[in-house]
Amino acid sequence: MVFDRVTPVRTARIAVRPRSAVTRLGEGRGRVHAVVFGSADFAAAEVDESSLALGAAAAPPEAHPAGRPRDVDRDGFVDFVAAFALANTAVAAGGEACLSGTLRDGTRFRGCERTEAAHAQP
Asked: What number is the average pLDDT over the span 62-83?
């Protein structure tokens, strides 16, 4: 997704789960779920799923399962969860996973989260 310099980008609180999945990045398998958290001033239920892009590769969400709104953190605000193929994201263990997208009203957002460092294999 390419952002112009005119429209401001809102900061969104996100989480990438499971965080430990990025330690398997070299295997090129698996799925991660990205959560965009809703709040009193951010309507995550209004995320336009087709606009989502995760990681340095700007990976789109998987079509199945489709993204869905739900209250992940049980704070009374609807959050949005989407699944991504890990191999498509270019998210590195110990790096930063960033998710960008737009709401249905055109509001752009971006949020980032540090990933866990890879653990040494025994």
From this structure: 90
